[in-house]
Structure prediction request, 122 residues.
Amino acid sequence: MRLNDTERRALADLIATLRSDFSASRVVLYGSAACDQLQEGSDTDLLVVLPKVSWEIEKQIVERCFQAELKCNRVISAAFFTNDELTGTPLRASPFVLNVHREGIELWQKTCDGWNGTGARP
Prediction:
């Protein structure tokens, strides 16, 4: 199963919020949604790359994810990292990060002009 129109709209709204309110530089869809293996109870997994991560920022983003969940009736799980954590620490070689790189779909990535579009499959 693929994401439906309501889920795609909820994700688009969430990504806009992550960009404007938290200066997210990347949002990557991974897991079953990225592999076209969604089932009725599947969640939507997102990797969110931020300039800085703190407990307060994480709480605020989880609240935004919850609001998106209410719109689309699907749990949205987000993992938060800085670009430095993903590229300059041993985390870059972790099975989690390697899997996201291998199977993830880039939903948004900041470029020179600030917009790189959305991924093709979701």
